[in-house]
Amino acid sequence: MTEHLITFLTLTPLVGALVLALTGDRGERPAKGVALGFGFLALLETLLLVAGFDGKSAELQFVRRYEWIPSLGVEYFVAVDGLSILLVLLSALLVPFAVAVSGGVGDRPRTFYALMLLLQAGLFGAFTALNFFHWFIFWEISLVPAYFLIKLWGGPARRAAATQFFIYTFVGSVAMLLAMQAVFLATGTFDLPKLAELARSGELARGLEAKLHWTGLSASALGTVLFVGVFLGFAVKVPLMPFHTWLPATYAEAPSSVTMLLTGAMSKMGVYGFLRILAPLFPGQLRDLLGPLMALAVLTIVASAFAAFAQKDLKRMLAYSSINHLGLCLLGLFAAMQPTANTAGWQTEKVAALNGVLLQMFNHGLTAAALFGFVALLERRSGGLRGLDDFGGLRKVAPVFAGLMGISIFASLGLPGLNGFIGEFLIFKGAFPLAPFAAALSTLGLLITAIFLLTLIQRVFAGPLNERWKNFPDLTRGELLVFVPAVALMFLLGVAPQLVVRLINPTVIEAVNRLGN
């Protein structure tokens, strides 16, 4: 059974969505119960996957491979390594977390929770598929439920936000698809590990020159054009500035439980694409454009921090904060792509940077989802208010709420002892020797992040109590059951990050060796 575990894992939320679609409408509570049941079943399967994963090996594991459309080079090809198993685990944790936080859906609760499970299936498929055609199906599947969740259950400006979200991500996907079709014409395969080998050996460049000479472009120029197409698809998803303008409105208008998945898991698909597809297939082009790309990463970190500082809406503030944190991931990735001598010292710095990237992806997913979950509770208790100046002094009447959200905020700003620290530390440890100027500029983003997150604590929880909220309720027992495990994980991964590092380090070392110098 374990050899088919990835297939069962991907099918579990699909079956849950189908069950919800076919059952009668009995109200929100039963629908939420079904979604939670299938979410926890998927989490159990993921834990079995992690338990059976050999953390000492960089090889693909739990591999299943079958011919699908041989004439088009399409296979059912799934497997996990240290990179993908970490993101599968993140997705498995966040979906039941988001479902548990959701409430007051209103109309069509069965459809709402079915779409949440369909989104999870898209995440599982995108993080485990290794044939581009197969992978792209799940990449697009995740877009569809997210669009409808925003459009049907979002805020007052939900239609515009959903449309902007769809257009940006769809245009990026089309650009990527066209570029990868050209790669297929040159190589005859959609197999991602094989394409990475062809790129490393130079066969991909020779194939582009031989098969696509009719374009009139040299192999180098054509490679750059294809790189830009694939880059656009992932840059929009992260998002990397200036491709970010869809995100603040989308996160603000989406139901908070949906925003938890958008920021916690879906944004990681973009960084995953950089690591799994863009860097292995186009390492030369990435290095040729490293200067502008590094500048965009620094812009993303610093400008988004200043934008967050200027916000009064809590969801918009946290949305820009999410851009800031993911910019750090790209800083670490681009730093690891810097040409260096092939010495143990430089290799160690690159391994540190990439380990930091993967830790940052996982830890940001957990803390950002928790913060949006707390905002959901604030909205629910205040009749929809979420402005920075709408509250004040809540610590006096809701100390547990203030304490747990405060811990999540400190984790987000990278306080030592909490999970957000170690990823940022490793990114900067690797980035400073590899790209010192970019790393130094990026520290300004860390400073501004600390300022606006501490301002959030001060305005919402500290100071005199706003009399309007004298009866503001603290966390209920059920809410504690939802949020305490997430906060406990922040502490656990803050003091024992090796629990994650042991899963990813062999994959990271292998990636650094394969990407070369």
How helix-rich are the residues, as a percent range?
over 70%
Return the average pLDDT rounded to an integer. Answer: 92
Number of helices: 20
List how many beta strands DSSP finds: 2
Topology order in helix (H) and strand (E) letters: HHEEHHHHHHHHHHHHHHHHHH
Distance between the termini: 41 Å
Beta-strand level of the residues, as a percent range?
under 5%
Please characterize this protein's 3D structure.
By secondary structure, the chain is mainly alpha-helical. The protein is built from 20 helices and 2 strands. A two-stranded antiparallel sheet has the order 1-2. Strand 1 and strand 2 (74-80) form a beta hairpin. Helix 8 packs across helix 9. The longest helix is centred in the last third of the chain and has 39 residues, at 344-382. The model has no long low-confidence stretch (mean pLDDT 92).
Task: Write a concise keyword list for the protein shown above.
517 residues; 20 helices; 3% strand; single chain
Topology (elements, then pairings):
Layout: H1 5-22, H2 28-51, E1 61-69, E2 74-80, H3 82-101, H4 109-128, H5 132-153, H6 158-187, H7 192-201, H8 203-211, H9 219-237, H10 247-253, H11 256-281, H12 283-288, H13 290-309, H14 314-336, H15 344-382, H16 399-412, H17 419-434, H18 436-461, H19 477-495, H20 498-515
Condensed summary:
By secondary structure, this protein is mainly alpha-helical.
